[in-house]
């Protein structure tokens, strides 16, 4: 009988356990020299790292919401996306903090059916091809690359279903933006067909599993190990793959935006992705081809806290993303800080004019401001050009808030660079009015806009149009785990903001497309409800006089101009109260 046979199972277990713990103790205290804490507190000190690792993904489930005004606002987004009743019982779980804006209601309110359903905004009236958006809301810029291909397709389909515009983000108009475009022409599309056998295999895989798995198997059968396989969209009806053939001559591309595509705002950043040649220079021919599928252009000068150029970590630069952007796969893609054709405001406006002539469509710019000196030079140059009869100036200005502004921004810039969206919109609107050019330029707002009350307040302060990022991200399944960049060693757990194939391929594209459309629908529905209790029949009747300001001591201020005058320029009376407002 061996020595071990004299012991029971549990005796053996505890002996092995004791040996492991002693070895672990010796390693932490005498061997490793990476963590100082473990030298003084072997083994038990590791709990610190366990709790730290668990803190981020679990923080949203405990305590009050800190990043937004209230967790109730976040709950509203998730319910709206699922088209669920959005009422609170008894009281808010987390009331909005003071100071805050309040909405004036009317003595005689309207019924919802007395409020117009028209939420249209027209851009670039003086262009040959102006754009009339059917909604005051667009999904803000999110690049295909920072967002997974499946996520982009969900947004595109949701945009088409909901009838609202979608901003391409600086990654350009990739193949995934054509997912709803099935009435294409082989003159401008590269088409890859398959064999009847492979199509039959796809049919059976779908029968026994699901459509997503069948599509993956079918793509593998058709393209084998082609690194650019993901740049093709599968036509579910004909079972062929297709992608835009950007090498086709300009004359082959459609003269008008196809009706089976959503309204796309093409964003150009300092990297010029989607409108550049192999050497990284602006390519007029490629730009014109892209604009055959887009309604207008947005030049991104800055985005939220990210005053630097866009940054895409190397592991997200898949062969597909490299193909779209004309860069090398699996290498960091860091755009320049300064837009290459904006060494001065005059040069920027000349480039705007060039794009307006090439596309015959509206062109705008996206900026972030810190004070009046950031916007006055733009207003002066617009005024100067109007007086000269020169229409080479932006058709619209997008004002992004300094509150983060993207999933991947330098932490030292977040909340330190740029005004919040309310301050920014009021200030830009005022400066454009003072220079007499407000009626020539549309004002677009972006930054922490989630719910209908946010929309009413921002539009009352002067915005004509809104771009929403975080709200649409949440409607598309984002759980705010804050692993978007992937540089932490973790990936987006739902497959929305990652290139990790094992995660993103499990993303429910069609379901989330419906959620995205629902979110937009319920935003407008509840904006109508607010307009009704304000006694307004049209969104265009909103103005700053429809608002009140409640400071931290519950004092009511009904002169919004005075609130902002003291906060932004001439006095400090309300600064302590108002600067807390986000």
TrEMBL record:
Pfam families registered for this protein in UniProt: Glu_synthase
Spans through the membrane: 7-26
Keyword Membrane: yes
Keywords: Membrane, Transmembrane, Transmembrane helix
Listed GO biological process terms: glutamate biosynthetic process
Keyword Methyltransferase: no
A GO molecular-function annotation: glutamate synthase activity
The Glutamate synthase domain, residue ranges: 124-536
Family that this chain belongs to: Belongs to the glutamate synthase family.
Protein's name according to its UniProt entry: FMN-binding glutamate synthase family protein
């Amino acid at each position: 009988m061996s020595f071990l046979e004299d012991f029971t199972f549990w005796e053996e277990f505890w002996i092995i356990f004791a040996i492991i713990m002693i070895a672990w103790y010796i390693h932490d205290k005498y061997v490793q020299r990476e963590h100082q804490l473990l030298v003084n507190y072997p083994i038990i000190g590791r709990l610190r790292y366990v709790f730290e690792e668990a803190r981020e993904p679990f923080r949203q489930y405990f305590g009050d919401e800190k990043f937004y005004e209230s967790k109730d606002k976040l709950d509203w987004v998730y319910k709206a996306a699922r088209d669920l009743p959005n009422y609170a019982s008894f009281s808010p779980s987390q009331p909005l903090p003071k100071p805050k804006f309040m909405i004036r209601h009317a003595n005689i309110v309207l019924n919802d059916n007395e409020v117009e359903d028209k939420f249209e905004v027209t851009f670039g009236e003086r262009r040959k091809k102006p754009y009339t958006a059917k909604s005051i809301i667009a999904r803000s810029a999110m690049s295909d690359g920072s967002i997974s291909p499946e996520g982009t397709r969900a947004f595109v389909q949701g945009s088409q279903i909901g009838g609202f515009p979608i901003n391409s983000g600086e990654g350009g108009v990739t193949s995934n933006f054509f997912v709803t475009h099935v009435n294409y022409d082989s003159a401008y599309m590269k088409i890859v067909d398959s064999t009847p056998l492979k199509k039959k295999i796809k049919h059976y895989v779908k029968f026994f599993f699901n459509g997503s798995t069948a599509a993956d198997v079918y793509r593998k059968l058709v393209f084998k190990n082609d690194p650019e396989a993901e740049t093709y969209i599968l036509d579910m009806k004909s079972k062929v793959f297709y992608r835009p053939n950007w090498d086709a001559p300009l004359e082959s591309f459609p003269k008008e935006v196809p009706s089976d595509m959503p309204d796309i705002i093409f964003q150009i950043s300092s990297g010029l992705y989607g409108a550049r040649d192999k050497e990284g220079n602006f390519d007029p021919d490629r730009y014109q081809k892209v604009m055959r599928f887009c309604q207008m252009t947005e030049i991104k000068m800055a985005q939220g806290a990210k005053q630097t150029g866009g940054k895409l970590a190397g592991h997200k630069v898949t062969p597909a993303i490299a193909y779209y952007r004309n860069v090398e796969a699996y290498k960091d893609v860091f755009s320049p800080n300064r837009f290459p054709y904006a060494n001065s405001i005059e040069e920027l406006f000349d480039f705007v004019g060039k794009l307006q002539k090439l596309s015959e469509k509206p062109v705008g710019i996206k900026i972030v401001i810190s004070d009046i000196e950031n916007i006055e030079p733009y207003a002066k140059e617009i005024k100067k050009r109007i007086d000269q009869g020169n229409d080479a100036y932006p058709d619209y200005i997008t004002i992004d808030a300094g509150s983060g502004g993207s999933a991947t921004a330098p932490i030292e810039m977040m909340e330190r660079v740029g005004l919040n969206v309310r301050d920014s919109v009021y200030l830009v609107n005022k400066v454009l009015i003072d220079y007499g050019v407000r009626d020539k330029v549309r004002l677009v707002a972006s930054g922490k806009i989630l719910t209908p009350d946010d929309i009413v307040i921002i539009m009352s302060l002067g915005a004509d149009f809104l771009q929403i990022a975080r709200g649409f991200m949440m409607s598309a399944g984002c759980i705010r785990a804050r692993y978007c960049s992937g540089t932490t060693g973790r990936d987006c757990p739902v497959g929305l903001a990652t290139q990790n194939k094992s995660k993103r391929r499990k993303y429910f594209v069609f379901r989330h497309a419906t959620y995205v459309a629902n979110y937009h629908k319920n935003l407008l529905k509840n904006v109508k409800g607010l307009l009704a209790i304000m006694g307004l029949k049209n969104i265009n009747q909103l103005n700053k006089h429809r608002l009140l300001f409640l400071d931290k001591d519950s004092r009511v201020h009904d002169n919004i101009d005075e609130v902002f005058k003291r906060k932004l320029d001439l006095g400090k009376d309300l600064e302590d109260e108002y600067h807390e407002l986000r």
